[in-house]
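debug: dumping io for the single-chain case to check the tokenizer round-trip. Nothing else runs in this session.
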Amino acid sequence: GLMDLSKPLVYWETSRGCPYRCTFCTSADDRLRAFPLQRVEADLQVLEGLENKVIKLLDRSFHLGRSRTVTLLQRFAATPEGLRFHLELNPDRISPQAMAIFPRANPGKFQVEIGLQSLTEPVLNAIERRMEIPRALENIRELVAMARHPVHLDLIVGLPGEDAVQCADSLNRVFRLHADHLQLGTLKLLPGTPLLAQAGQLGYRWDPHPPYEVLAHPWMGFAEIARFKRYAEMLERFWNSGYLVYTLMWLVRTYHAERLTDCFDAMLETLGEGIARDNLQPDSLFSLVCRYLEPLLPDDGLLQQLLLWDYSQFSLVNNKTPDWIARRLSHSETLVVEGSRRRLPLLQLSSEAVAIVNQRRRVHLQAGHYAVWPRQHKKGKPVSLIPATA
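debug: decoded output
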């Protein structure tokens, strides 16, 4: 097999090919062959001898009959603590029996990647991707609400028949799920895929060199696709990085009627394209965000709390900290943390702020004052304690 056991990420497969025929995928014409469970078990026994590995399943779809899926998930859940399993799931195909395994498994045992691609029904039909959208969204909500196993969602811009309005709608609806990671990719017309064979007739313009990205098509011009590439960058910076998660949740909900694209448009307009294009250090990102939020902050106590909370998890106050934040986090208390006395800023979290923060925490916080200790030192040494309750 494919297993190279020396790397932190081990690639493994329990089946080849795919039951689906999505036209953008290189597995579209690949007949499905599931490996016998005896072979899977033999592999697992080898994997169980390893420490601290992520086992990334290469299976194009993990749903090959309910009993097989449930058997494998239970078996993965029972492996030693140092092994974690990265699975690509079709969200509408997760049975209640499979779903019941996730809340009982150790936190972080699974990393779930879900390719939604689009929430526009006719577009999914056009690329021959079968998905029951309401059921898919319901299952994702359930996985995210557990706050137990990281959930990574993918969308694709540039699919045939999807215009900018529909694309924005897919993005806004998927953002509202508040998954750990949301990736917005531009369609690639890969060699050997049915979609590449249709691309000329469909009026696509694309880069003939790797990574073969779509540049324009009859439903979306060059400038519109470029705008979604900026949204993708901003998602990476604000959300996937973990830097501004709670601030962004509140901003989008309160000032932009739950439309992420409107929020990003307003930021691009005020701050310029640099917010999506320049190679920004996190401190510069916080400075720009503070500049953008300045008019809103005085009248929005909740926004203030969430911004300070986001910043405190990233860093203690230093000479690069934006003024607005530095002034409010400079009042510190001396506390004993991990055996040594430290001066740490104290933050107040109201019950409204806690309700937002708890959406992404397995262990829920109560309203009150917290001394916040960054996720990691600047030097990259991880720090375990957030937060120390005062």
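debug: round-trip ok. The radius of gyration is 23 Å.
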